[in-house]
Amino acid sequence: MSAVIEGRSGPWEMVIGLEVHAQVVSRAKLFSGAATDFGAEPNTQVSMVDAAMPGMLPVINRACVEQAVRTGLGLKAEINPVSVFDRKNYFYPDLPAGYQISQYGRPLVGKGRVLLDLPDGATREVGITRLHLEQDAGKSLHDQHPAKTYVDLNRSGVALMEIVSEPDLRSSEEAGLYLRKLRSILRYLGTCDGNMEQGSLRCDINVSVRRPGEAYRTRCEVKNVNSIRFVQQAIDYEARRQVEVYEGGGTVGQETRLFDSGRGATRPMRTKEHAHDYRYFPDPDLVPLVLSEEFIAGLREGLPELPDEKKARFVGAYGLPPYDAGVLVADQETAAFFETVAKGRDAKQAANWVMGDFFAALNRTGRTIDDPPVSAAALGRLIDLVADGTVSGRIAKEVFEAMVETGKEAAAIVEEKGLRQVSDTGAIEAAVDRVIAANPGQVALFKAGNPKVLGWLVGQVMKATGGKANPKMVNEILRQKMGA
Amino acid sequence: MAAAALTGLGLAGARDGLRAKRFSARELAQAHLAAMETGRALNAFITETPERALAAADRSDARIARGEARPLEGLPIAIKDLFCTKGVLTTAGSHILEGFAPPYESTVTANLWRDGAVMLGKTNLDEFAMGSSNMTSAYGAVANPWRRTGDNRPLVPGGSSGGSAAAVAARLALGATGTDTGGSIRQPAAFCGIVGLKPTYGRCSRFGIVAFASSLDQAGPLARSVRDCALLLRSMAGFDPRDSTSVERPVPDYEAALTGGIRGLKVGIPREYRVEGMAAEIEEIWGRGVAWLKAAGAEIREIALPHTRYALPTYYIIAPAEASSNLARYDGVRYGLRVPAESLEEMYERTRGAGFGKEVRRRILIGTYVLSAGYYDAYYLKAQRVRALIARDFAEAFREVDAVLAPTAPSAAFAQGEKMDDPVQMYLNDVFTVPTSLAGLPGISVPAGLSAEGLPLGLQVIGRPFDEETVLRAAGVLEAAAGFDHRPSFLASS
Amino acid sequence: MSLDKATVRSIAALARVHVPEEELEHLAGELSRILGWIEQLNEVATAGVEPMTSVVEMRLRMRADEVTDGGLQEEVLADAPERAGPFFAVPKVVE
User: Fold this and answer.
1) Sign of CA dihedral A90, A92, A98, A100
2) Residue B240 falls inside a structural domain
3) What backbone torsions phi and psi does residue A224 show, to the nearest 5 degrees?
4) What residue ranges in A111-238 does DSSP mark as E strands?
5) Which of A120, A202, B316, B461 is least surrounded by Cβ atoms within 10 Å, i.e. has the fewest?
């Protein structure tokens, strides 16, 4: 899926790496006992530690460590038995201590990988460089007062996982696939809710361009982009901008930029990045984090089936095409819905129903998989009616729409509306006879050896029976009567 | 009992007197509050808390009457103004914490109140505990209650716990808390002729103590006897789940360790501490200490601590580095001083420029520099490697010996204003105390005699990690042998 | 190591400590002297020595994931030099 930018001077390739900040699902903060709930009154979820009052000390939350290790395992990554927390020093009003506790030299998690599910059913591996735990900063509000910035420390100290990818992505589409896949894994694990609107998943983008085959060129970092669509826009804009700079004879300088979603463009940050010298050093308030093999093994045992494994199972056990399987496993709820529908039934039929009419109904009604317009069990029973010949596939679609509208059971709708399939030979024969009589020309064509006409004739019979005739029987009787 | 007699008691003596109802906790507190008034010229206190002291004393009297006295019931003590005390101004000796009254209590002080101690006030200190003279306090210099014979110039009490040491020496308090980062308990104790103990790193919680250098800071007691230090340490020490570097192990009865029996104790004499140009009287007092321990049955051995001479430069990389980061929180946003300005950057720079004194500013700049890009490996990382070697020196020595005897400081107290023009000269004060701090080991200073000028000189006993008992026991032997009963020129009650 | 005025100025900026221009020269001298003294560490052979990461041999203790703190809006804001309702206030930051 690599996208080539055709410049005036020839083709350019994008090189993209993402740093994702994922808020860890935990009740309390990484180093303090204050709550992490979203949307609380300003400065109410702040302990003296989070406000960096004099003499306050950090104590680490076990659950946050576990979540980060579980995420690492989910990314098929190495878990480092010894990791160290460092201080990243810089001044900012929403960083109360004047440093962020992070992991610089010795992160908790090392190299791992994420598989992208490409539209053609193939997969592509994107390397994970590392994952580490760190504190979130508070929130600065710049738009409340003409001359002031207001600071709310509720988020200060909430645990974040910084997940850094290798510069393996080659287009904004791939970046989108990567983020969706990563979010899917995090949600399966329950380590991050993946909610980008609330800021629980934020993304810094490293973008450069190069001639195909060339070494990496200077990259620019676009900070803090908070939706997948914006990430893609930012990448496309930034790559084009760099191409234009190069083609105009200029050079791209390493810099930090911001994405303006209103203009769909990036611009350099006004604060001087070169003034940032973070002076990392190991936090002397903490000692190294040492994890035993048993600790890690225990977490490994408790991992759920993850999207890639589930997808493989759907392909293997249900015979689904890889792409379909990929779509169905994107989130756990959809996968579970599908498995309920498919249980004891034809899996491909189940997949078609879920991905077709059911997804369309979700979109149309604006409802979610947690609150579906038709339950998995009800959809299963509708499929059963098709399988046992009670209704035809076409009628079933009509029944499904009625189920969405009324919430009634398929069987009840079939009875109410008299949609039961006609499998009475006599009735079908009468209809076939009428159609043969009315269409001598088409019958002649069929007899002359044009099999395509058969479908048209079947359609006529179905029409004549209000769609209720068993299509298989119609087909057979037609052939029989036309002497085929 | 007369007020002078009350302030002249030790903690242990006062405890026994209270229990025997020879006087009340209120009387004891009043005597000390009166002493504090007469001793104000020393400038030992930044904040006095007389009402709080009397209220606490009354509660103690009630408990004593009910027969529910706790270990430190009714004993008036002073608290270094680096410990956060709930609702009471806590300054760290700095303008930048102007007006700051913390809404929480440090663990160490909370432990002391839990055991019944009575707070008299908050004592002066070098700004953010950075100094060896108490000259860097934004609240003015502290005067040592001692004067040179025939010379009335005010002397420094040492630092950084100078206010605590002066208050205890002048009998304004029965005991005091201090903190020691590179010698800040032991050196002022030596300069003021009292006992000061720096426990093993991790023994006392750092929670609620304004941080200077987190990997070195450790709270400890200052008092007029080894026994009194043992008494205070027992209450101050203990595991604290709110400090990740606090060590989970039981607190022994330190007083019970003062058996006086050191027969067979192996005591090391580090040859590298015999530094070039060492004052003859320091060498002499050290020799006397060796003889006292030997006489009590200790085995004396010469030991090697080969990296000793690198301890000071190591310390002056690590401590400022940590301090530069620890002091970043004083930014005028959430508490303390703010110098208003149009822009945020200017507000930061003006606030911190005005709020920090010269020595603090110097150390912040050194610390910032040694951590900055391109210099981190050459300075900070190098220093942490040398620190590992210094700690290894001690670990190896402690395979052969049970304790180490050394001088506490290279000189007696010096005059206010001396050594001020050369920071490096000032730093050399800590030459005998810093190695112990870097290795996290317990050390105690005991007054052992007087200099030719009539000033107290201290001897230091250093022990294995968490072996404060041996340190106290050996110190008790030195104390008994020295029989140090000299009085400072200024005694509040005299 | 000898620090010049410009270096001291930039360290002071990094540390957000205002140093009056007229003090830079003197401070540069002082800091250079301290750094020169510190550099005797270069004499020590430290190849293969692990830098000390903690004084006491211990593993990081982990606490349970329980909400035990917070709800202290007034206490947290009480000492603020400038507040605006439930917020701390600072001069406007331009990003």
Assistant:
1) negative
2) yes
3) 55, 55
4) 112-117, 123-135, 139-141, 148-152, 159-165, 201-210, 220-225
5) A120
Q: C-alpha angle with apex B85: B91 to B62, nearest 5 degrees?
A: 140
For A55-84, the pLDDT digits (tens) are 999 999 999 999 999 999 999 999 999 999
- B358 among known catalytic residues: no
Query: What amino acid occupies position A41?
Result: E
**Whether the predicted pLDDT of A172 surpasses 60:** yes
On whether both A396 and A345 belong to a single domain, the answer is yes
Q: Does C68 reach chain A within 8 Å, measured CB to CB? A: yes
Same domain for A373 and A267: no
Q: How far is A356 from chain B (nearest CA, A)?
A: 55
Structural domain count, chain A: 3
Pairs of CB atoms within 8 A across A/C: 139
Neighbours of A441 (CB within 10 A): 8
Tell me the pairing of strands A60-61 and C62-63: parallel
* Cα end-to-end distance, chain C, whole Å: 36
Q: What is the pLDDT of residues B57-113, one digit of tens each?
A: 999 999 999 999 999 999 999 999 999 999 999 999 999 999 999 999 999 999 999
From chain B, pick out residues whose CB is under 8 angstroms from the CB of C63: 241
- Return the CATH number at B155: 3.90.1300.10
Interhelix angle A410-417/A376-387, rounded to 10 degrees, is 50
Helices vs. strands in chain C: H and E counts, helices first: 3, 3
Q: How far is CA B96 from the centre of its chain?
A: 22
Contact at CB, A98 and B322, closer than 8 angstroms: no
Helix axes A393-406, A410-417, angle to 10 degrees: 110
Rounded to a whole number of angstroms, the distance from the CA of B31 to the nearest CA of chain A is: 32
**Which of B24, B106, B160, B411 is labelled catalytic?**
B160
Number of domains in chain B: 1
Q: What is the ipTM of this complex?
A: 0.97
Are the beta carbons of C86 and A152 separated by less than 8 Å?
yes
The tokens describing A311, both together, are: 């997808």
When CB atoms are compared, the residue of B335, B354, B385 closest to C80 is B335
Please give the residue range of the domain that contains residue A405.
307-417
pLDDT tens sequence across B182-224: 999 999 999 999 999 999 999 999 999 999 999 999 999 999 9
Asked whether residue B47 is domain-assigned, the answer is: yes
Asked whether residue A13 falls in the same domain as residue A67, the answer is yes
Cα(A444)–Cα(A448) distance, integer angstroms: 6
In this structure, what token pair is assigned to residue A291?
């994890």
- Nearest CA-CA distance, residue B114 and chain C, Å: 22
* Closest chain B C-alpha to A210 CA, distance in angstroms: 29
A183 and A231 together in one domain: yes
Chain B partners of C44 at a C-beta cutoff of 8 Å?
307, 310, 382, 385-386, 389
Given pLDDT bands bounded at 50, 70 and 90, which one contains residue A1?
low
Task: Identify whether residues A146 and A227 lie together within a single domain.
Answer: yes
Q: Are A152 and A38 in contact (CB under 8 A)?
A: no
Q: Which of B208, B245, B329 sits opposite A287 (nearest CB)?
A: B245
Give the mean model confidence (pLDDT) for residues B453-474: 98
* Range of the structural domain that residue B259 is part of: 3-264+401-493
Regarding whether A468 and A359 lie in a shared domain, the answer is no
**Active site annotation includes B132:** no
Answer yes or no: B184 catalytic.
yes
Q: Strands C83-84 and C87-91, how do they pair?
A: antiparallel
Q: What is the pLDDT of residues A396-455, one digit of tens each?
A: 999 999 999 999 999 999 988 888 877 778 888 888 999 999 998 888 888 888 888 888
> Which one-letter DSSP state was computed for residue A304?
P
Q: Any CB–CB contact under 8 A between B424 and chain C?
A: yes
Between chains, do C72 and A151 touch, taking CB under 8 Å as contact?
no
Contact B349 C91 (CB under 8 A): no
Q: Are residues A321 and A218 in the same domain?
A: no
**Hunting for tokens 């803090």 — which residue is that?**
A224
Task: Report the CATH number at residue A476.
Answer: 1.10.10.410
